[in-house]
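thoughts on my protein:
***
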Amino acid sequence: MKRSLRISILAFCVFDATHAVAEDWRSGYSLYGTPGLIEMPSAFSRPDAEIGVTLGGFENQQRASFNFQVTPRLSGTFRYSRFAEFTGQDTDDLYDRSFDFHYQLLTEGSLRPAVAIGLRDFLGTGNYSGEYLVASKTLSPRLRATVGLGWGRLGTEGGFENPLGVFDETLNQRPPLDFGDGGTPSFDQFFRGDAAFFGGAEWRISDSWTATAEYSSDAYARETSLGVVERETPFNFGLSYAPGQDYILSAYALGGSELGLSATIIIDPTDRAARSGFEAAPVPVAVRGRTSAALPSERALRDATATALLEEGIVLQSMDISGRTVRVRFENERYRAEAQALGRVARVLTNTMPPSIEMFVLEPTRAGLPLSTVAIRRSDMETLENRPNAAAQSLARVTVAETGTGVGATAVDAQASPFEWGLSPYYAVQLFDGSDPLRGEFGLQADLRYALLPNLYLEGTARYRVSENRSDARVSDSTLQPVRRNVALYGEAGEVGIEDLALHWYERPGRSLYSRVSLGYLEKMFAGASAELLWKPVDSRLALGAELNYVVQRDYDLGFGAQDFADLDGVYDVVTGHGSVYYDFENDFQGRIDVGRYLAGDWGATFALDREFANGWRVGAYATLTDVPFEDFGEGSFDKGIQLTIPLDWALGNATRDRTDVRLSSLSRDGGARLNVDGRLYETVRGGHVVALQESWGRFWR
């Protein structure tokens, strides 16, 4: 054991004494979808905020991985894998979800190697469970090497007594892994039991091609014992092709008997797919002349401004002129960033307002709620439009304040129809089931929205299902009231169904206060009433919210009825609600904690942390813990997952507020299930407040 420890120390010292010049040579992605070699990890990290989606594997094992570089040193990975005949039955494949963490302890220097520590499958069934400490060093512009020490599954090939046992003898034994329902951290496993060395080298043949050789410390013990994987040698070899920074294609010779393939798509959420926006250019700022013409009436000015703003996708709601100030209230229907809408409104006002108007007081709204009061000097618009660094200079000169709760300025005649509708194809999927990687439905979707008032509207969605494969979905044996696990039964009885149809009313009951009341078919599975109150000062990073709901379970046919459970003496109804704390950190991270009662009557809390970028991308993770025992919750033990928001203007280049929300999680379960009501207040109002405006102000002049 002492000899093994000395060898470990010597190996790391040799790396540290090596002098090499490191180029901008990015780490590859392993077959596990993490920064690494082939199947072994390396100590390098990918660029900050990068997303890597990897599909790879070999004949009897395939993996789909989502890796996110959370910070420059920390990355997290969600993985969904297929194990062929892993349970010992010829036709019984296993589909498994797992999570990894990889943290770079030391960055690479001229003499110092990069050093990282990691947990593989620390939050899952443990089929891939392992831990590692690894060092990597660039030896020349085209050669770099990696050596590491692995535990768990990474300590099964050439394993020896745990070097950490010198500190605590209990670390020499690794308790048998109890899969259970999965989904819980195996703290009693970490860095315990036998350890083994692994390592490898990468040779950069050219800017596009890289060859890799590695010694793997994973013996595939269970797979070889079942006869589903052959392994003749611990050596793996690979060849990767990466002509740019958008994708990597790789082929591997694994264990002397298997051929592996992988493809990684790389996404940089800090950049945009469309290099330049395709929306129409804003109207130029009109500089005031020395001469003045006869002034039109205020009504004529309102009409001219409303018409010009409508061309920009902005609806003017009210406008007043007082002395040298014009005050306008408007709703932005086109631009994701309110800062861009503010810039467009200010430009239009320089063209429509008489020369005597110097101050523009702009009040953006959402759902009829005034979000903030932004004061911009006309002379600043005229001076800064074509200056370098105009965005930063204009931001320093504007003021953003709280908007009063009283009635707005003089209303203008409606410029847009209060009724909106649309028809589009849809595809709804359920991913990462424990027995089926993909199931869902597709068809046609009709959306409608009718505004009775700016802050009171009816909104709904109906779907016509053309095809689906949900009827064979597994049913959990959970003892809880089925509030989510039977989602596959909704809509099965008919081709047409109402997804939601509800009346939403928004108000400003006081300073820094916002309210919402929703009534109707709030979501696919529940109907009832929902009330929410949010305290969010315009210049604060902190917000507090409270929500209370009373709902009943809807019929499976997605019609207008409620479901009658004979064994429950009638319709299932529940009072549910949460108190929420939101905080917007200064480093692009947003945190949220919701505490309260969930749909199955369980009590607990949801913790969420997202990283949001100025271009609208958001990547985050969440976990919900309630008083439901893990065994009653069922597979996964508790609700958790990864959530993405992809703004469509990022991909298309056209100005739009539309976005796609994606959740990568375990199966829909009953524990920790929350009502899915649209239009919650925090996301409705935050875009017009100081923090969001500052982060997106670079779009003010677009």
